[in-house]
Amino acid sequence: MNDRAARLHLASRMDSIAAFEVMEIQTLARELEAQGRDVVHLEIGEPDFRTPAPIVEAAHRALDSQPMNYTSALGIPALREAIARFYAVRCGVNVDPARIVVTAGSSAALLLAFGVLLDAGDEVLLADPSYPCNRHFVHALGGVPRLVPVGPRTRYQLTADLARDAWTARTRVAMVASPSNPTGTMVPPEEMATLAQLARERGAALIADEIYHGLTYGLDARTAAEAGEDVFVINSFSKYFQMTGWRLGWLLAPASHVREVEKLAQNLYISPATLSQHAALAAFRPETIAILEERRRELGARRDFLVPALQSLGFGVPAVPEGAFYVYADCSGLTDDSFAFAREVLVKAGVAITPGRDFGFAAPERHVRIAYTQPVARLEEAIERVRDFLAAR
Amino acid sequence: MNDRAARLHLASRMDSIAAFEVMEIQTLARELEAQGRDVVHLEIGEPDFRTPAPIVEAAHRALDSQPMNYTSALGIPALREAIARFYAVRCGVNVDPARIVVTAGSSAALLLAFGVLLDAGDEVLLADPSYPCNRHFVHALGGVPRLVPVGPRTRYQLTADLARDAWTARTRVAMVASPSNPTGTMVPPEEMATLAQLARERGAALIADEIYHGLTYGLDARTAAEAGEDVFVINSFSKYFQMTGWRLGWLLAPASHVREVEKLAQNLYISPATLSQHAALAAFRPETIAILEERRRELGARRDFLVPALQSLGFGVPAVPEGAFYVYADCSGLTDDSFAFAREVLVKAGVAITPGRDFGFAAPERHVRIAYTQPVARLEEAIERVRDFLAAR
Prior knowledge:
2 copies of one chain form a homodimer. Chain A is of the alpha/beta class. Chain A has 2 domains: about 150 residues, Aspartate Aminotransferase, domain 1, CATH 3.90.1150; about 220 residues, 3-Layer(aba) Sandwich (Aspartate Aminotransferase, domain 2). Chain A contains 13 helices and 12 strands. In chain A, the strands form 3 sheets. A 7-stranded mixed beta sheet of chain A has the order 2-8-7-6-5-3-4, sandwiched between helices. Chain A has a 3-stranded antiparallel beta sheet with strand order 9-12-11. In chain A, helix 6 links the parallel strand 3 and strand 4. In chain A, helix 5 crosses helix 6. Chain A is globular. The N terminus of chain A is likely disordered. Chains A and B meet through helix 1, helix 3, helix 5, helix 6 and helix 9 of A and helix 1, helix 3, helix 5, helix 6 and helix 9 of B.
């Protein structure tokens, strides 16, 4: 039986889906911890804060008062309206609630956006480095990710100039992430508008991943929704709202495509989790926002500590991150191989970081991603451990 | 702007994804209700029972005690073990918990199974009629659904003989649903074994949709897991466990494919909803099962009322349903057009039913699906209304 099962076909798309290095690092870290070692976890892309209490309390209330039935595939109307209001209040942009599609995490929003846009062989322009799942969504739907190498010159972001150079007859989507995972850098509003215009002129779509929107330090993020009602904007309750395990996000879609997104969502997801939707209604309340803004200040303080500390160790930080909770550090002054380096830092110094390989093919050996999802005291500990490790080499 | 956005490309896959008729029927029903009409809802594929109290209480406890972080993409170990134990206790089948992948509803389980199995152009054999989303998952991944017309002769199920006749060089998957939506019929264990053997011999996979497993009347359902460790089995917490809005299901995958399913799940979903997973741990407790078994008896009583009542009205029920909560009734003695008939029954008799068109292309005009997701008293009311409507025509 097992012999036969082993002969069962495996889809060729699986060849292009690598396991995440961050998972391997995490597994190795857990093994060290099982041996009694202390590890500072700077590898994980998840906030270290619990979901704010008002959201948890709203979940308790909904459990007692709401039947946990399927909802509309587009999400409950009250939540779609609350998200639209948030765009008005926070970003000063008027958005029709009818354009908001609540999704099972931003993962679902990405699959739906690509799903209504891409035919087999259609190309998607993506920055390299970027969040690896994005290209795997494209693959899964038969599209072709075109990774555009970016670096410090454009603050690790795709620009309209780079997109124009990489554009082909099959390009159907240009995608940016602002703030970006793994670099924490943003696309300036003027550049976003130029990218939207470029896509528009060519009958293509701009998708803006704003999953880390709200988590910016020293400035408030604008939204790509400003750049036109034809821009697809992806957002999430996971990061700023700190609701990772609730698996809730949204897609702001052009009015022309909402009905198609709805049909696809009905078929692929039925509806997002009902309880998460009711809980998320509390995410926009003043008492929740007060908690989130306090945590944002805390994250800003961590960034302000971490960037110069890394530089003092010999890491380069050519584009100081403006948002998210990552530093994409250039480790080429310390190693030729970020992959081996990350493992060595973990095993010898007890600090878990992610090698660049998870994020693409543009000089990953020169980069590591360091997540500041730990308090400053732990970041200090990590810096001292790495300092000792480097001195002892 | 809107003119330009309207010119934005739409993926060709959307041409083959029809909106659900059941949604149109539901919308029309809500309009009638808004006018003060009473409608008996027999169109909806969702149990009318609330999630059992022990599951809701477990959710309250988890909200207070667990951080709502991402989990492993495969699900929390305790839940995977609980599901494996359920196979042992309920079905007498030993299943390695390592083969259980907890998913964001059975929707995610289906996408993952097809995702690791299908290349572009690969064919999937499906019964017609069947649950329409199944063919749309295949489409979304670039596969080709091959709908095999089935009828009363095979109790509306795909058989090994039918599969052999429809098999081509590109057939990669044969899929069955037992009990089936929309017909409520089951695949006998011997037939399931033959189907599994056929797939095995041809290097293909059998996928068994057991989403309605447990909801059978007069007999206990066997599981396709018996038919070999190379069978992909899909299940859900939605129907028997009555947790629709929690969006939780699972995939029992061959050991050879679990790692690939995990990689795809990490990329497409990250993880299933954390709270739903903790709540579902209570789904297997004796006090929950006692509630569910009481509700199963209630559903059985509804079926036992509804089938002869429909026959008394002139509907044919050539294959009496053994499970799920649907009757797929032959209305050809009453109408030539089930689509117009369903609308007329709704508008004139205030009874919402689903025309066959939602489930495929094999004589949909002769069939309607009637869901017994209402108490017997409401079913009686519906039958009397339809009787009066038919008499007055």
